[in-house]
Amino acid sequence: MLPQVNKILYCTDLSKNASYAFQYAVYLARQTGADIHVLNVVEQLSGDEKLTLQSYILNQSSREEFLHQRLNHARAQLQQRQDYFWEVIAPTEKALRTKIVGCEVVEGYPVQTILRRSRELGCDLIVMGAHEKGWLHTLLGSVAKNVLRESRIPTLIVPRPEKKAPAE
């Protein structure tokens, strides 16, 4: 007997495919009655990036403001995507918005943060989209690939939707 899905961790990088993957998270929540926790991880700056930031923004408070704005921008973009999704969804499905029990934007290393939050939240399933990074990551982005490899709970990686051929 498979375990019941009660909590879904939907991970988004705010790409177009992530929005497509959100449809799957909502569908699965409807089918299973599960709650959805939304997570966006803003990648932590590398040592070189921090050094560059210090070189160009000499004022400490200005650097802190810049870093704070990165998170605020991601929060605003996530809220905008959520609002749009619920605006265009079928009216009969709008009640599913109550299944979103948490929505957070955090700074960190994506793979480790996703896995840690899935454990902390007691999630039964991770849903995320495959990332578009060119031919090196033909099928999966490196984050999706590593989450899939390291996760101890089922993980659904939603591929990019097939592009429709133009009508002739």
UniProtKB/TrEMBL annotation:
Q: Which InterPro entries match?
A: Rossmann-like_a/b/a_fold, Universal_stress_UspA, UspA
**Annotated CDD domains:** USP-like
Example of a GO MF term: ATP binding
Q: Which domain of life is it from?
A: Bacteria
UniProt KW keywords: ATP-binding, Nucleotide-binding
Indicate the family of this protein: Belongs to the universal stress protein A family.
Know the name of this protein? Universal stress family protein
